[in-house]
Design brief:
CATH topology of the largest domain: Rossmann fold
Shape: globular
Helix content: 55-70%
Bound molecules: adenosine-5'-diphosphate
Distance between the termini: 38 Å
CATH architecture of the largest domain: 3-Layer(aba) Sandwich
CATH superfamily of the largest domain: P-loop containing nucleotide triphosphate hydrolases
Length: about 450
Amino acid sequence: MPDTSLDDLLTALAASPSNPALGMLVVNACLAEADADALGRALDLSGIALLGDATQRDAALRLLLEHRDDERVLQVAPPDSAAALFARARLLLAEGDRDEARGLYQQAVALNPALEDASLASELAGKVISFANARRQHAEGLRAGNAQTSLANDDTDADDVARLLRAPEPRIGFEDVGGLDQVKHQIRRRIITPFLKPSLFERFKRRSGGGILLYGPPGCGKTLLARATAGECRARFYNVTITDVLDMYIGESERKLHAIFETARRTAPAVVFFDEVEAIGGKRQFSREATSAKLVSQFLTELDGFAQNNHGVLILGATNVPWAVDAAFRRPGRFDRVLFVPPPDEAARRAILELLLRDRPLADGVDAGELARLTSGYSGADLRNLVETGIDEAIEDSIERGRESPLTMNHLRAALKDTRSTTLEWLTTARNHARYANQGGQYDEVLEFLKQHGAG
Ligand code: ADP
């Protein structure tokens, strides 16, 4: 029970706030659990004497900065330090003093390039108005009786403004994606960090262009991960499905594709997610009739354009049939990194089930852990199907009995009989490709997964 013990430590600290040994314990516990709130409370109790040496102070500052607790960063960091300048920049921006904020941000990054934050930089540059800012400015404009208040900068058009004011889809982060720790780690290392700190990568002469292609059985979280990646980068998310692009008129599909890339560039930072990449970038034998060679080459040209200059835009793709994606798409600078998104393991299934069961009328004894054990091979989408089938039973019961009868474990057990896992079929097909067409080891992760699950 890590939370309780941290709470206990804080209670003890409240009783003797200037006990250095206790202070050290508390700080270490807060850092180990990355709990910025608890650290804040401890600082309120003991002041900055709480932080023993410089190492501890730096670690505390990193945690506070990450959690955007800028007020406390200012308490802890020396006034001219990079961290303090950075925090002041963020606070000033929130107050609307963008010019001053920009200057401080630049000084901060000059002192410590690791503080670079591309999404903050573009807010400071004024290219992007964040949802929060746009809504606030809009509300202020209305309060001032000035409905004409311009939200737009020179490079924002009316459509953008309309979109800015539309309630954004709730932002999700990696904590909303169950399991998949390996994949999250890879995404963080390979694209989120380079995305947020481009200059640091330049200094180390580390190339960071190119997109990531996620593949795996359907319904296992590729789209969810892409959305969460955008959330982690605090970037806009564009979810492009093939139907958005394909058009029966000649040349129209190419034009739409170009417009999508242009919009993303204009509204950076952005994550553009192409679902069903194989439908645009498929090998000829797999491609749909509507896809033309011209569209494929347009897509490749756009991707190459990004390899040269991808400032603030990340490209992610997903496919259930990676073996149908043309190898031209995997060249450097295009989708040069390919990640396997496996079916959820037991812990991930449990997390997904807990999300699905949240806010439903549940009887005592509904046990997500038990269900997770019984659903080996189920994808996230299969689990959703399972819960919905159970819910249908509960609704029927309720109608029969004339009063609400909550979802029970029995409903869910009955639903288990009516649903099935869909990942096995995919894994069987994938196994054949992995065994017989594993050029360059591209399906090694699939083979590894099959081996671990005794199906290799
Ligand atoms: P894919 O893009 O791989 O076909 P999605 O990301 O659209 O699959 O997943 C379908 C649904 O299944 C999601 O909307 C979500 O409800 C659920 N789901 C799948 N994987 C996870 C996961 N790892 N954590 C939480 N929910 C998940």
